[in-house]
Amino acid sequence: MRTTTEIEAFYDGGKKAGALIRQFSANLLQTTIVFEIDGGPIIHAFQQTRFGLDVFDWSEYKYVDHLEGSDVEVKASAEPLLRDSTAKPVPSYAAHLVLKEFLATNEPQRKFKQFDEGSPLSISPAVFVRQGIEDVETPWGNREALKVISEVDGRLGNTFWCANESVVKSDWQGATSYATNDVDFVLRDLNAEVQTVISEVLESGRVGER
Q1: 3-state helix, strand, coil in the chain (%, to 5)
Q2: What is the spatial distance between Cα 67 and Cα 170, in angstroms, rounded to a whole number?
Q3: Is 7 within 8 Å of 21 (Cβ atoms)?
Q4: 97 phi and psi, to 5 degrees?
Q5: H/E run at residue 100
Q6: Tens-of-pLDDT digits for all 210 residues of the chain?
Q7: Beta strand pairing status for 175-179 and 4-12?
Q8: What phi and psi values does residue 165 have, to the nearest 5 degrees?
Q9: What is the greatest pairwise CA distance in the chain?
Q10: 3-state SS, residue 200
């Protein structure tokens, strides 16, 4: 099974604190977020969405929050509010696939519905909106990128700067992440536990596990 890995260096309070890792196959997206809050605990969450033709045809998802001790598995077929094939809401972590599909078009916006994995029946309208080209500062210098904002339930959500149909920088309403292929840079100067989690995820190539 062909897999693709995307990694983003994650910053909290302006300080590099961890990583956001996405691992893809033809019908599976697995996302790991791990970072140390400055002077606080380590956030470590894992989300998996299994789907068919596209992300709106998802069949099941799994969400694990190691700090909160939660472990949730949901099948779309078991939730009446999630079975609408014409406008099925997607898990919030899987909205990244909606963004990727949107970037491959010239549409000014893409409307959809999503829900928080912790509250699967709390469904909200969402939209990605193109905002134009901006000069974006990254750890490797400035570059031009398309700004895309997200709105969830009518409120401003996360902001993404994209180039060549890929995310360059993300603003998570305070925290920030930057796409990179430089794993050494991502790991450098991080908390030892955070480094270990990131290394294990990258070495495991999780895609395909059940």
Answers
A1: 20, 55, 25
A2: 23
A3: yes
A4: -70, -35
A5: helix 95-103
A6: 578 999 999 999 999 999 999 999 989 999 999 999 987 899 999 999 999 989 999 999 999 999 888 899 999 888 877 766 567 899 999 999 999 999 999 999 999 999 999 767 789 999 999 999 999 999 999 999 999 999 999 999 999 999 999 999 999 998 999 999 999 999 999 999 999 999 999 998 765 543
A7: antiparallel
A8: 65, 25
A9: 48
A10: helix
| Residue 28 amino acid letter | L
Residue with tokens 């909106």: 129
Sign of CA dihedral 198, 202, 204, 209: positive
The pairing of beta strand 155-163 with beta strand 15-25 = unpaired
pLDDT tens, position by position, 117-139: 976 778 999 999 999 999 999 99
Q: Give the C-alpha separation, 16 to 207, whole Å.
A: 26
Contact 22, 30 (CB under 8 A): yes
| The two three-digit tokens of residue 189, written as one number | 């100067």
Tokens matching residue 165: 């149909």
